[in-house]
């Protein structure tokens, strides 16, 4: 396992994360919500909600049905950005600062619990999944996603090459943690938490990235390993962005945008009575 210092952003990075991560996350948000069969009046918990991609999408799907959508995250800046975006979009979501391994909710509270690209960063993965299983109601579903190996997604592989060339082992090991929780481990975690009907599959999405000249440096600065790269040497941002853009040339179109494949695991399980 790589360095698992977690996914924490500084300064105004949560706001930029909302902007630059959105095109990458969108298809996986949809797949995650499809997996829990979100219906009218649903009560859903989004664990490690970040800036609220999943929670806002859930609120949009259930608008006007009396649904209750809750997002929890350990990083106050993420929650502040999430709340601001939800208010701007006119959706009502409850936000709570909390650790995934110690959720402040009674058992059997939620119809569904979801976690988008968060499990790989939890210091105690079994405890976090056990908490999800505890707070979901009997018959409810838990669904989690985690990235497939980085070589399955060209942008992630290109970033790793740039980190190796300009960042050194500390940053590359930290970055590798983002890909440290495979389908087999996710499946075992859900089963060990007492969930049944556990299924795992890959979600593959071709994502249209905006012109890379602006997108790549922006995307680098909304990850903690990208921030560490720049802190080590300010001109690393330009050097790494140039290298990543070069490596993505096979997927780049005439206007500088790119059509890039991303692959994630999606694992679901059902809480029995």
TrEMBL record:
Gene Ontology MF term list: S-adenosylmethionine-dependent methyltransferase activity
UniProt GO BP: methylation
Keywords: Methyltransferase, Transferase
Annotated source species: Streptomyces qinzhouensis
Entries under InterPro entries matching the protein: Methyltransf_11, SAM-dependent_MTases_sf
A Pfam family: Methyltransf_11
Organism lineage: Bacteria, Bacillati, Actinomycetota, Actinomycetes, Kitasatosporales
Domain Methyltransferase type residues, every copy: 45-143
Domain of life of the organism encoding this protein: Bacteria
Protein name: Methyltransferase domain-containing protein
Coiled coil (UniProt feature): none
